[in-house]
Amino acid sequence: MVPLSHVLALSAVLFVIGAAGFVFRKNIITVFMCIELMLNAVNLAFIGFSRYLGNLDGQLFVFFVIVVAAAEAAVGLAIIIAVFRNRDSLNIEDLDSMKL
Amino acid sequence: METLLILMLLPPLLGTMLNGILGRRFSQAMVSLVGCGASGLSMVFALLSAWVYSSSASQPAPFIHSYFTWIESGNLRADYALYYDRLTLVMTVTVTVVAFLIHLYSRGYMEQEGGYYRFFTYLNLFLFMMLTLVTAANYPLLFVGWEGVGLCSYLLIGFYFRRKSASDAGKKAFIVTRLGDAGFTVGVALLFWTFGSLNFQSVFGRITALPAGDMQSTLTAIGILLFLGAVGKSAQIPLYVWLPDAMEGPTPVSALIHAATMVTAGVYLVARSNPIYSHAPLALEVVAVVGCLTAFYAATIALTQNDLKRMLAYSTISQLGYMFIGCGVGVFAAGIFHLMTHAFFKSLLFLCAGSVMHALNGELDMRKMGGLRHKMKTTFLTFFIATLAISGLPGLSGFFSKDEILAGAYEGPLGHPWLYWLGTLTAGLTAFYMFRALFMTFFGASRMAPEVEHHVHESGSKMTVPLLVLALFSIVAGDVSWPKAFGGSEAFDRYLEPVFKTSEDFLQAYAHPGGHALASGALMMFTLVFVVVGILVAYWLYLKSTRLPALLAERFSWLYNILIHKYYVDEFYNWLVVRPLCTVSEKFLWQRVDVEAIDGVMVNGTGEEVAGVGNLLRRIQSGNIRSYASWVLLGATLWLVYVLWPR
Amino acid sequence: MVVLFYIFAALAVVAAISVVAQRTPIYSALSLIVVLCSLAAVYLLLGAEFIAVIQVIVYAGAIMVLFVFVIMLLNAGREVPTHRSRIAKWLGAPLVAAFLAEVLLAVWKQFPAAGTRPAASLDAGPAAIGHLLFRNYVLPFEVTSILILVAILGAVVLAKKEF
What interface predicted TM-score (ipTM) does this complex get? Predict the structure, then answer.
């Protein structure tokens, strides 16, 4: 069977790719998708552990993560739409009104 | 007995509180009733204590009673304890009698002055503090009284606080005596460090048990330091400069505080600490020399003063010098004797000056007086008696006390002939300036301004009765100690023997060998000669050839200027101490330290630093999400490094 | 069997890189769908059938569709490069590389390749999941349902054109 370390390595790589995207991309929606990517990487890690520890709780956790990700995606996209209506730009670097 | 002592101390304290808190609403009659009543009660209880003590079986041993524990800290234990022996008896009786008479006098003097209740409040407070000082059984309690009288002196000198010269004088008094107090405090600390206790009984007991020469350097240091406090309080060289300025206060204040009581606290201190001094002859020599020089020096200044009260102030300084001579050569009882007689005639002199001031509507310049003896008979009479006393004419109290001191200066344990000669010369000068004052004020043609002359009148009985009583004391007080040369038994000295004998005997060991050329009768003769010469010169200069003084002043103008400017000492101190202090305060402490360092660097600087750092940190909050993400990633990376670091 | 894992793993990584690297958002979205489906296959290989199906239905089927709708609604075009974050510009790449290295190191140290054998196979069907869900995890379940309700309300309010 696949060794746990490989599963985790895959998870790590996906996570880092997601993080890189989050840092480098400028389109809000793309950034959001990178966040989803990171969440999936974590889900993979949970499933891996669940398999190798023989415990079903890991999968339960993934279940909840998916649910929460769905809720978050819905609200987040609604926010993006609202922001777009006001600023007319999808560049996150334009959204700096929280600047001190 | 212990209750009597407390009853003696309590009325002035109660009087202070009553007059202080409620006095504003009292009528003048009520205020003076409280004030004089308190002082009178105190006097009564002082006399009662004296009587009880004298008839008790245990005397002449001191009566010591501790009322409650006041300080108990580590080794130091100072109780609120009172010490009553013959010396205390003399001091308390003198202080309360004179204080009571002056309280009565103030009823008349302060009638129109304003601040009536405030005056009596302070006066009562002063009495309480002074009594605390002389009845204390340990140095800390004595110091409480010491500082207390200093405080009251400040308050009363600056009584007319709206006048800048008065408030300046009050400050000067307090600050200059503070310098002396510093010495006092160090001396007391040294005492504690050496003996582990500040109780008179234990300390003196241990010292008298020491053989001669033991611990001499320590005791000399203590003696000189304590004397430093006395120098400040009793206005000796170099800390006398506050006393002439203290004449800004009302005249009863000058009489009570700066003639009879507070300034004598220094003498009391030295006398009370006589066991310490008996083992430190060098310190005593310092005392005697300082006293003698001060006596002469102050007398020379008094020669040319035209302000009546100021002249009396210098006279006080001079007479205090005499008391220190007495203590310094080892005849402590003589010093105390002179303290007592001086209290009577000096306060009388000041009260007479006040009476004259009142009559002349505030004029104090003797050049603008003259011929008052017809219009102010009682004042003139009492002033004349007091002048005779202070000059040391036979039969009056001053003669006995002063001569005892001079005799001691010549043949006492630590006496030196030159102390005697200088003291005798000073006696002559004293007679001169006192009679000068007498002649200028009361005799001769009137030099008063016409409108002043109109209103000249004798003072009311409220003021003259105390004058008469004090005059009586000035005459008879000397009779307590008729000198041996006249066939007497020197009863006063015998009386104070239990207090001083051990020390005086001990000091005999240090006495100079070699015969004394003059017998005591001859000593008295010489003094008398000087005194009479002084009187005659005054008579000639101020009564007969009245233009002569002005001519002499012109001929010897260099000397005259030095004297009338009081040897320029005030200017010297101003240059030496006051100006540098002010410069340091202003240029350095105020501008550098306070404004720049504390305000600028510490207060504002901190604020600016914080704002600066905040400004710097604010750059992180750029509002740019990518920056935030990068920071988070950075933090996560670093944290992982920390976690994964091999241990 | 094992080989399938590596194939799907490789597919996931490539698609992930595509998500990040594509200039146009719509292509990123489509790449993300590929990632999600390959991950579902991996889950299946790891014995989590229920979750794999849920992943496809909910994540790839609903969430990504939502994403695509929004991208089209907002007419998101090519990205214009702007560089207003200095730290991202200079530290971004090295940081990411360092992070990757660290995580892989951590994984390798904790779980050396040889020697970790899976436990006995689990029953990961709907019944088993349901049992756990409604017994041990019933509280999170209920709370999550409230969460979804709130999310619905929030989304509706935020996206309305006017009040």
Answer: 0.91
